[in-house]
Amino acid sequence: MITPMASQEFTTAQEHAAQIHSIRTQYEELAELAGSLAHEIKNPLSVIHMNIDLLSEDLSEIDSPISRRSVDRVDIVRQQCERMEGLLRDFLRYARLRDIDLVSGNLNDQIETVLRAYQAQADSEGIDIEKYLDPDLPSIMMHSDSLQAALMNLVKNALEAMEDGGQLWARTYPTRTGVALDLIDTGRGVDDNTVLHMFEPFYSTKESGSGLGLPTARKIIEAHGGRISVQSDVGRGTKFVLEFPTPKRLGRSSG
Length: 255
Fold this sequence. Notes:
Layout: H1 4-60, H2 65-96, E1 103-105, H3 107-124, E2 127-133, E3 140-142, H4 144-160, E4 166-174, E5 178-185, H5 192-197, H6 213-223, E6 227-233, E7 237-245
Helix pairs in contact: 1-2, 3-4, 4-6
Pfam families: HATPase_c, HisKA
EC number: 2.7.13.3
Keywords: ATP-binding, Kinase, Nucleotide-binding, Phosphoprotein, Transferase, Two-component regulatory system
């Protein structure tokens, strides 16, 4: 027999579930609308950018003080167009990230690919990349392209934090529930307030940053069933820890 109190609790739980479903539906609709709006803005912005380039070419053929001043102003407009295009590109990537198809793969392969892509830049900037990758690392379920995009963002940020050279360590190892990757740099580090907000959309300490790189990286990692955490000390460096679950049905790979 269901008591009146139990019935009331059940009704309250149903109402709460309905509210959560309604909020989630509204959020998804808003995200879809925002993505569509960004796409619609991107098209005319591309036209503006193209015509600014043509205008700059026309002005460059006129040798006068007025045309030279105009070229400078056109360059400012072009730079802002490029900044807005980059912002829209990052936003669309963030807004469109939904459920992704995962297949078995090795985390070592992903970080190796990303580090190779940035090796030349690191060498030119006096940055040593040290790798400590467990050769017996268990496989995880992953989407290679999106995971590499997340890793590239983290490595790029690490290199940019070391203007005067430094070291970047990449270490993989098994955990109790899966595998983990540590990315540690000896860069300038950030304060506690920045750590608190760095995964919030549009929060950025960079003048030209969109503020969507780290939020997108976190969203990708969470879509893999993983999580990301960060520790940082101003003047000493930053450490990101990425953790991914290992399905029990998957055996250990040979790396």
